[in-house]
Amino acid sequence: EVQLVESGGGLVQPGGSVTLSCVTSGFTLSNYWMNWVRQAPGKGLEWVANINQNGGATYYVGSVKGRFTISRDNTKNTLYLQMNSLRVEDTAVYYCARDPGDDSAWYYFDHWGRGTLVTVSS
Amino acid sequence: DIQLTQSPSFVSASVGDRVTITCRANHDINKWLVWYQQKPGKAPKFLITGTSSFQRFSGSVSGTDFTLTISSLQPEDFATYYCQQANVLPATFGQGTRLEIK
Predict the structure, then answer these.
(1) In chain A, which residues have their Cβ closer than 8 Å to the Cβ of B94?
(2) Mind telling me how many Å the CA of A69 is from chain B's nearest CA?
(3) Which uninterrupted H or E stretch holds A18?
(4) HSE, side-chain direction, 13 A CA sphere, residue A108
(5) Is there a contact between A96 and A47 (Cβ–Cβ < 8 Å)?
(6) Which candidate, A77, A71, A69, places its Cα nearest to that of A30?
(7) What's the distance, CA A31 to chain centroid?
(8) pLDDT tens digits for A24-35?
């Protein structure tokens, strides 16, 4: 069974930093592109970033470019999202999600974690 | 960025009803669209790609207009549904359609 379990969320002050983790199981992480998708409280879904199988290619939505960094450690079956210079508008549940593409990315998400809430507030 | 507009934003229906949700893209997305279901407090769940079918859920497309049809609503189908274009980054979502019990 595919499982994705996020952690690392919490209350952070504006301008602060936090790193989210997503531990995966039930599949070979190194075979898949991976993503972070967020959802502000009571709002819709927003794709944040993705990363290819070996970590050599990463892409970001414009609002987080230069502030967030996606990375992975396939030996630990773990995906990360380092979030710097946080803003109030970054407050959201952050989901880790798998791209089902077998080599290239297919740009959608067939498995999701339960999410971790990041609240940016003073 | 590609914008997706879902309609309606809210629909009230009864068990057994047939429901249709539409998603319109503002640019050609080469039929690369998927649908998700999300229940309160839960993660989104992948449903179908744009023109596929799964159980009572089916998708269709006409140009840049995509449709999700639920053939006969079951109690567990009451949720929020999102479309998402998978043609180009950034991947973008529709604003959601909340399906509630009448």
Answers:
(1) 44
(2) 16
(3) strand A18-25
(4) 21
(5) no
(6) A77
(7) 17
(8) 999 999 999 999
- Per-residue pLDDT tens over the stretch A48-84: 999 999 999 999 999 999 999 999 999 999 999 999 9
- Cα B29 to Cα B64: distance, rounded to the nearest angstrom: 7
Q: Residues B1, B20: contact at Cβ < 8 Å? A: no
Return d(Cα B25, Cα B33) in angstroms, integer: 9
Are B69 and B60 in contact by the 8 Å Cβ rule? The answer is: yes
Token readout for B37 is 């279901």
A56: contact with B, CB 8 A cutoff: no
- Is residue A88 classed as helix, strand or coil in its secondary structure? helix
Is residue B91 within 8 angstroms of chain A, CB to CB? Answer: yes
Amino acid at A109: F
* Any B CB within 8 A of A89 CB: no
Q: In B, residues 16-75, which contact A (CB 8 Å cutoff)?
A: 32, 34, 36, 42-46, 49
> In angstroms, rounded to a whole number, what is the distance separating the alpha carbons of residues B88 and B97?
23
Q: Residue A102: pLDDT band by 50, 70, 90 thresholds? A: confident
Task: Give the amino acid at A93.
Answer: V
Query: Cβ of A101 under 8 Å from any chain B Cβ?
Result: no
